[in-house]
Amino acid sequence: MKYSIGLDCGIASVGYAVMELDTRDEPCRIIRLGARIFDKAENPKDGSSLALPRRTARGTRRRIRRHQFRLERIRSVLLNENVVTQEELDNLYAGRLDDIYMLRCKALDSSVSRTEFARILIHIAQRRGFKSNRKTDVNDKETGLLLTAINENQIRMDSQHYRTVGEMFFKDPSYKDCKRNKADSYKATVSRDMIENEIGLIFEAQRGFGNDFANKNVEAKYTAIVLSQRRFDEGPGEGSPYKGVQIEKMIGKCALLDGELRAAKATYSFQRFSLWQNINHIRLVSASGDSFSLSDAERKAIFDLCHQSANVTYEKIRKTLAIANDYYFNTLSYGEKDAAEVEKKAKFEYLKYYHQVRKALDKYKKDYIQEMDVDKLNAIGRAFTVHKNDAAILNCLQEQGIKKEVADILVENISSFSKFGHISVKACNLLEPYLEQGMTYDKACESAGINFKAHSGAVKEQFLPATAPELEEITNP
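Now predict its structure.
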């Protein structure tokens, strides 16, 4: 007997169905079906990932390691450029020491010794200010608090005419008792740009006093180390198997076309594919139980409605198509509830990312999205999904022919997108003409000449192989 097994894998269950196949390999009888239910792989208290504590600890270790490595490089510059000797460096913190913030302030107006200068540089490198990878990180609660504190400190510096952060922390009474952040207080947070400005002023002042240890070569090397920051999406450095853009490495293969990568769900092609699929699933059911499919004009009306409004409900669809009240949508579960209330709350939104892009582009020019072709909209969706760094996103957008001023507005107004679909952009584009005709997914695949059943014809084995290239591509531990 020929049979086929279908699986519906979720995070807390796996549904299965075993179907008997006829001579044409078409299902003809259900042999068995059911579901296996298990606990979600998450913390039951707050729904967080079980890997979160491990990931947090790893992030802390990495941050400490990079901090220590940065200080090691700073010390190497101080030694190699003859700012201090090894003996002076070893005894840098011996004996009675002047307040470091006083020294940072003093260095702006008078000459400091080599050891004092070394202390200043090491101290600044340890507290180099906050720099976000994304402008839109302001939407994150903690980052928003940090940016608010930075803005308040910048206003304080400007209003009190403090030249540098060090001078403000030394002279301003607000920081008399504490110059460090505590718990949820971010009062002492400053930006990386403010620290960069202080570095430049201190080096310039010391050169003016004739101190050769503050030459431009030392300044360039020191500044490069202090300001360096690995991009969030870049992963570890050379030698690590996880170097490079990790998201890009983990994109799966298209389920329909060999050699094609899956499309980001934010790409316009995948959004249109999903929208047509869901439109084609809609049927109207009468009180007597008869069901009717939508006409081409009605399906097109829903398609247009979803492009016009970011908030589409079944109530809006009913009004748009002028559907009589004695017909119901087969895609909704009404139960004993009032039909109008159910349809008012039920969302039909499959162009979420499209409307985020549209609203951002409107800041450049009203309805500018109409001037963007599908390839450019796909590039926007993919760039904000794969990259988590402003510079990388800008570079990616400009490579696709999007004007810099437009790319800048997108970066300023769009946060990150996430997740990938099961098929590629190419597959979406091949299937869309058939979906637009009202075909279901399987019929559209057949019409496009695509084998959607995923029967590879490979030799079947009872057990998974111990090693195989396919297993190496599985990113889930």
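The CA atoms of residues 111 and 210 lie 8 Å apart.
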